[in-house]
Amino acid sequence: MYKAMTIAGSDSGGGAGIQADLKTFQERNVFGTSAITALTAQNTLGVQGVYPQSLECVEAQVDAVLSDIGTDAVKTGMLFSASLIRLVANKLDEYQVNNLVIDPVMIAKGGAPLLQEEAVVELRETLLPLGKVVTPNLPEAGKILDGRKIETIEEMEQAAKDIQAMGPEAVVIKGGHLGSEERSVDVLYDGERFFHYDSERISTKHTHGTGCTFSACIAAELAKGKNIPEAVKIAKYYITAAIRYSLNVGNGIGPTNHSAYRLHSLSVK
Ligand SMILES: Nc1ncnc2c1ncn2[C@@H]1O[C@H](COP(=O)(O)OP(=O)(O)O)[C@@H](O)[C@H]1O
Ligand SMILES: Cc1ncc(COP(=O)(O)OP(=O)(O)O)c(N)n1
């Protein structure tokens, strides 16, 4: 059984964070483990509270998992502070994790900050160079690039290239926040080539946890031995199905449907 670990925040509402990651790992047939960096009191209406865990607590979780079970890939999500980022980077280095997917989570859809402003420098300088794949959305890529505006596919390509130059092997800029009414395009740069992953833009408000689910799927596929362009291709199909059949639970922005790909017998074309 291949294994994947998520180091991220808990979403009590079940649509994003650790919960989305573990559901995705299960659906992609890898054994999922976790280390929780912060608890959030969260639902479809937004984030009501953020409770970061101590360095000691996060370190103990990572050590417990990696010293015994091990892993074929790690995905990081909400890391909240510069000190947690430093700790996680040290641990990934200590356990020589190769397949690291970094989702540089900064702000929840409702606007709640999930990363302290001053931690962006630590993210850029300490964590990004360790990544196999980094998956920023447009605002996150803009922040990593010191406030740059990214509004076109050409600007996404340049941003992917500039972030890749900071050290990770590859960068996928996610296009969920792009202005287009019709298509949702993600751009991968692997240091040599650009790949575009294009899907229809699904008209739904229930998109809570899209970024977490997408990056967790990439980690699961890398764990199984897929190369980066293949892993991103599968993740794009998986998230598109999850959004197409997203769930109207709660009174706000509902979660994606992690079982959609399997329940509707979809496959990668
Ligand atoms: N309405 C939509 N229709 C189809 N795909 C979407 C839609 N919204 C987001 N996506 C896809 O979901 C994935 C996550 O993107 P995005 O929503 O930008 O991330 P985040 O949740 O980090 O903001 C990407 O593959 C993106 O193209
Ligand atoms: C605990 C936690 N982690 C990450 C997020 C952000 O998830 P994302 O997939 O970007 O989804 P939205 O918040 O944009 O819906 C989160 N909300 N909570």
Number of H/I helices: 9
Mean pLDDT: 96
Bound molecules: adenosine-5'-diphosphate, the ligand Cc1ncc(COP(=O)(O)OP(=O)(O)O)c(N)n1
Poorly predicted regions: none
Please characterize this protein's 3D structure.
The chain has 269 residues and is α/β, with parallel strands linked by helices. The protein has one domain (3-263): 3-Layer(aba) Sandwich (UDP-N-acetylmuramoyl-L-alanine:D-glutamate ligase). The protein has 9 helices and 9 strands. Strand 1, helix 1 and strand 2 (31-43) form a beta-alpha-beta unit. The longest helix is centred in the last third of the chain and has 17 residues, at 228-244. The protein starts with a strand and ends in a 6-residue tail after the last helix. The mean pLDDT is 96. Ligand LCLJCK34 binds next to strand 1, strand 2 and helix 7.
